[in-house]
Amino acid sequence: MPLIVAENVHKVYRAGEVEIHALKGVSFAIESGAFVSFVGPSGSGKTTLLNLIGCLDKPSEGRLTVAGTDVATLDRRRGASFRGEKLGFIFQDFNLIPVLTVYENIEYPLLMVQDLPARQRSKRVLDLLAAVGMSEQKDKFPDQISGGQKQRVAVARALITSPALVLADEPTANLDHATAYQVIELMKRMRDNFGTTFLFSTHDPKIVGEAETLFTLEDGRLSDAQAGPGGHHG
Amino acid sequence: MAKLLKIALRNLLRYKRRTLLTTSLITLGVVFVLIFVSVTGSFKTMMIAQNTDAMLGHLQIHRKGYVASIDNLPLNLNLNAGAVERMEKILAAQPEIVAYSPRIKFGAMFSTFVETTNIRLNGIDPAREFRTVPLLPERILAGDKELERGEIWIPELLAKGMKVKIGDTVVIVATNQEGSVNGRQFKVAGVLESATGPGGRDGYITLEDAAEVLRMEGRQISEVALRLHDFNQLDVLSERLGTLLDQQLNPQGKPIFEVHTWEDLSPFFNVARMIDLMTFFMKLMLIAIVLVSIMNVMIMAVYERIREIGTIAAIGTQPGRILALFLLEGLSLGVAGAVLGNLIGTLVIVLVNVSHITYDFGRQKNLLLRAGIDPFEVFVLSLIVIVIAVVASLQPAFKASRMEPIKALRHI
Fold it and tell me: Labelling B19: which of A19, A67, B295, B348 has CA 20 to 30 A away?
């Protein structure tokens, strides 16, 4: 069974008197372990779609199932639990918590969301720190590390709860090309190591090439789904 | 919870200056309230003591209905020997009572042979009266502090107005309960400082002289003043005595006695209440300071961290934990302010006491300002600050916990 199934998903926003049809009947399916990119110009609906898959928003119409759960049925509390258990997030601006160290930022979801015992937490955080190459920076605060390092920490934080799916909205937008490439490579390596499905949006053509499956969005419609240069079709 | 507290504390330290200012404001508020409560409390205690220890006593017992007519000093409402005996039996069984003094109170004519005026007199047993109201001798401005038979202490204003000196002979003329008039000569043995409050401008003669002037047959008294070992036992003893004495009935089956505390008898009770009211308003001001300052800080904190709230909500933090995080920040500010305020306030109180600051009140000169604070008061004050700090954080914390992650993440 696919990890994500979207059937004729619509999303309409109201901005005052104006209705904005951000998604217009999107349908697709994504298997577990895929490394997928949503591409398209600004305003094409990439972020809206990622928000729906991430249970941060609900479709106006249609059905969207993530890990067997219809996202429209989740209320605020259950939505939070679902995100904490099944999903990981990587943000364009890294969104690390400034008062926590690198170690604590990665540990945060285990502490606040999964409430794991200290010993288990420590082992998993140290393993992931090593996996993303940030062991030596573990005691630094976010303002003491570079943008690329911050995104590595964000990748580790997204993976710490062993989620089924990691969503990354423009994860490389604030990074130079070399660093962006490294981050995408890291994400791919993490997918290979942990079997986690990665979905990311981007409009950087060089990064697009790293995806194994590409979904192209245009004006709220899925115009194309194809195997990317980075691998097999998901 | 410990980790959540750690994050809350780090969040507070993120804006050091703002946290410092808010904590300082709360600390200052607590310090001022503590000092105010301790100094006014000390003044109130002294003022009450001045009233009860110089004139009133802590408690008074009268015949039922006497206090309602106390301005007339009604002789027909005196207690007779039998009633006094029954009362004394009850008083003897009360361990809280250190002394009690029976008094005969009456109105009389005061004559210097040249001029005549009226006077309110207390017939007392000097030894028992001094044990009951130990500051009475302090009010004697001139003359002897011993009161013998045939002697009278008169109030200062009367002595001045009538130009009476120590050693002068005066005549006291009084009408007794049956309506017959009797007079007797007295030697002025002391001049008493006038004091505000009931009994503050009364003269004193011995109990025996009073009975003689009033031609009393058998033992009679108008009131009994009581002094307690521990003033804080006043309400307990008053209630118990009230109950016990209410069981003492006259032949008509009605209670003989009535018990009144100094609060019922002295207008100074209203001053004491005013001090309590001022303390209450000081506490209200403190509440307002804590409420406004913490609410302001927390509203700012939520506004500045909207994206951060969005992030932690997106990664699965439950709304309740976000609420708890912000409440803990407010709580920490309150606890820090309360602890620092109590420490500094206590230090100031100690300094006040070490400095031996003195003041005058009535007859009492160079009274030492003893600023003291009840630990319970410190506890209540701390509790108020901490509870208000949490209450002030509720709205911002609730707002943070209810924030839609998607909107919060879009916030710039």
Answer: B348
